[in-house]
Amino acid sequence: MLLDNNADITQCDPIGRSPLYTACAWGHAEVVDILLKRKRNADVLHDVKGYSALHIACYSGHIAPVMLLLKHDFPISQEDKSGQTPLLLACKAGHTDIVKFLLDKIADANKRDNNGRSALYVASREGHLEIVHILLEYMADPDIRIMMVCFRRKWLGRTTH
Q1: CA separation (Å) from 104 to 44, 57, 76, 143?
Q2: Is residue 148 pLDDT above 90, yes or no?
Q3: How far apart are CA 112 and CA 83, in angstroms?
Q4: Residue 161 and residue 32: Cα distance in Å, rounded?
Q5: How far apart are CA 46 and CA 43, in angstroms?
Q6: Residue 8: pLDDT band with limits 50, 70, 90
Q7: Integer angstrom CA distances of residue 63 from 31, 32, 131, 139
Q8: What one-character-per-residue DSSP string does 116-145 give?
Q9: How far is the C-alpha of 119 from the C-alpha of 112, rounded, in Å?
Q10: For residues 86 and 89, what is the distance between their CA atoms, to the nearest angstrom?
């Protein structure tokens, strides 16, 4: 009804969350599909962290919105303000299905954020062993210096878990 009465679907809340962003965060694929059909260039909307709808869908673990966004040509390697890609966020949150899907769509497994952290580093730090194996299968570069620090902290019990 709102869309039929020309509601502004690009209007964001005070921290930059659009209706599309919110639908992706909550995994409402049908709403995402409707909004994507109504608005072009929705990929330019970001929250205060620089997260796009694809970032939040990947971080929240909702595969259906991720698939819809990529079908509508959202940039798979778009970075937030910290240089994090959707793949890195999915690795951080432990969403194996999304990680595999993004890698199948040719996401760069070796891209690093502004602090030099790769998806492999983040998955290792968070203890997501299955994702570590998947990234290595997709030829992620195991920078041994970073990985040694990460695993040493894990063995010594100094992680944030």
Answers
A1: 24, 17, 11, 22
A2: no
A3: 7
A4: 33
A5: 8
A6: low
A7: 14, 12, 16, 23
A8: S-BHHHHHHHHT-HHHHHHHHHTT----HH
A9: 7
A10: 5
Cβ–Cβ < 8 Å for 60, 83: no
Q: How many residues make up the chain in this entry?
A: 161
**Are the beta carbons of 119 and 140 closer than 8 angstroms?**
yes
Q: What sections of the chain are H helices per DSSP?
A: 19-26, 29-38, 53-60, 63-71, 86-93, 96-104, 119-126, 129-137, 144-155
Specify whether the CB–CB gap between 9 and 45 falls below 8 A: no
| CA distance linking residue 24 with residue 136, whole number of Å | 28
93, pLDDT greater than 50: yes
For residue 47, give every residue at least 6 positions away whose Cβ sits within 8 Å of its Cβ, in sequence order, or none.
Answer: 12, 15, 16, 17, 21, 56
* pTM attached to this predicted model: 0.81
pLDDT band at 145 (very low <50, low <70, confident <90, very high): low
Q: For residue 135, what are the contacts with CB-CB under 8 A and spacing of at least 6?
A: 91, 99, 103, 109, 119, 120, 123
The structure tokens 């209007």 sit at 11
Query: Which pLDDT band, with edges at 50, 70 and 90, does 2 fall under?
Result: very low
* Alpha-carbon span 66 to 33, nearest angstrom: 11
